[in-house]
Amino acid sequence: MASRCVLAIFVLIAAIVPMTTLATEYIVGDESGWTLGFDYHAWAAGKNFLVGDELVFKYPVGAHNVFKVNGTEFQNCIIPPADRALTSGDDTIVLASPGKKWYICGVGKHCEFGQKLAITVQSLAPTPSPAPSPLYAKPDEAVKGKRPFFTLRWW
């Protein structure tokens, strides 16, 4: 009886406590940071960016900035108004929604020289619920006409 209670408590806790996914923090450019002369396309290749992950842009204050832009602005290096710039030198952007995301540096011709990043953010996949075990199936729910050897019931 005690083992049944322990098992019941374990099953209840497992059902109530949701599985959580820890967000990944990506330092853009790794140890090079956000700078000129770095291949951000190659850096992003093979990475699986998910909703909730964070991009951290590290650079010397005043040397660079970060703008979140649309695809046209990215492609043509169109610099948005200065009040949209991130300028702290340690800017964190939480990837809040799935889809294509674009970032550029708006200092001088840095964007034209390749200081820009395009990524695709995936949504979190739903966790599939486990299929019920035939051991716990009621006789009328048994697999294709086969009855289980025994049925455990918690009630």
Automatic annotation (TrEMBL):
GO terms for molecular function: electron transfer activity; metal ion binding. It holds the Pfam family Cu_bind_like. It comes from the Eukaryota. CDD domains: Phytocyanin. Coiled coil: none annotated. GO terms for cellular component: plasma membrane. InterPro entries: Cupredoxin, Phytocyanin-like, Phytocyanin_dom. The keyword Membrane applies. Residues 1-23 form the signal peptide. It is found in: Membrane. Residues 24-123 form the Phytocyanin domain. GO terms for biological process: response to symbiotic fungus. This is Phytocyanin domain-containing protein. It comes from Populus trichocarpa.
